[in-house]
Amino acid sequence: MVATTTEQSTSLRRRLVNGTLWNFLAAVCNQGSTFAVSVLVARVLGKQGFGEYAILQNTLATITFLIQLSMGFTATKFVAEYRSVDRDRTGRILGMCALVSGVMAVVGAVALAAGATVLAGQALHAPHLTAGLRVGALYLLFAAINAFQVGALIGLEATAEVATAGIASGLFTLVAVTAGVLRGQLLGAVCGLALAALVRCAIHHLLLHRAMRRQGLRFSFAQLGAERHILLQFALPAALAGYYSQPAIWLVNAMLVKQPGGFAQMALYGAATSVRQLVLFLPNVINTVGLSVLNHERGAGHGRQYYRVFRANILTILGVSLVVAGMLAIGAGWILALFGKDFHAGQPVVWWLLLSTIPESLSIALFQDLQSRGQIWQALFSINIPRETLFVVLAWRWIPHLGAVGVARAYLLVWIFALGIVAVMTLRQNPPIFFSLRAARTDPREPVLIAAAGGR
After folding, report:
1. Alpha helices in 258-302 (DSSP H)
2. How far apart are CA 46 and CA 445, in angstroms?
């Protein structure tokens, strides 16, 4: 028994280390290229043009999140949980997620192309952005499918494939958007994003099929009705959370650009967001690896390994976030100088957003336990709706007087609020386990979790 436990621990450690290293490489290329693209676009287009690029990018990201119906999130959860214990079911889950993603991608792209004029003219008060939104419909088509592909690869723990795709697509995005903005200004930059999304989707398609063959899996479209409870109990509430959260974030950005000098303020907020993402990229890597491993260990009934990963994620993410946020706060002025001399006024925005990365990272790490239990409906009403409602209210109150600083301050406060809620929900179910591994025995679905949840 001792040998078995030792072997399990060694295997778990190896999976975590390998997954983190591969995903770290992918994240460096993806986040590095995203940051470099933002700097370049700001340099070429100036403060006003970069503000327009930022609101277009935010709009496309929001709609992409909405139309994917959380299929990437769903694929990660259930592919990781069942791939070693039920291959037929895993194939059905993959087929269902792929089908939903494809249909919704087409619907979303057509809807955006048709409604671009209304969205740009009435919602953003910027009719000249209509062409950018229409080109963005192509980006939308491939980005929504890509979200499922990445989620499936993470669920398969295909870390080498994720890294390969991240490196290749990150470099191509940098080249495509650079060429686009230099030749076609704002519209050219959006064309570059669309082309990069197409290439990324093609790369992930090839690598996903390779990873599935290696594990003896294939897409199955038969008897998909047997998995409808996954849509109702997991994907639906996760999608509804996105339907509430993402429009709320977009609404705040739209309120900002409608103010006098709004696109300039949006430029400052966009630049500060790029810096914030530099802090989050490593915690996101750790969370990505941990998400798949946690669900796999849960499905296999390995309680001790489950809780070891859970606690290690929290401690590692806290340390990384504090160190990286502190370093970037010190160098905020130098980093903003990369965007151009007009961005120096964004330092207070950066500082507020860097503070927000601590509660945001910890909230995501703690939420993995709720996600692994499938408590998505509870999270929707207890976390998502209160958090985003508070964000909109605070931003509405502060934007007229503080501009981008008001948005950043609101962002910090709502993540502190969310961390408190997530921590309470997690501690209610894991009081002994949260602080010690001695309570973890065998199966996180049976004695330990039942006792920790108060018998529920």
Report:
1. 262-300
2. 54
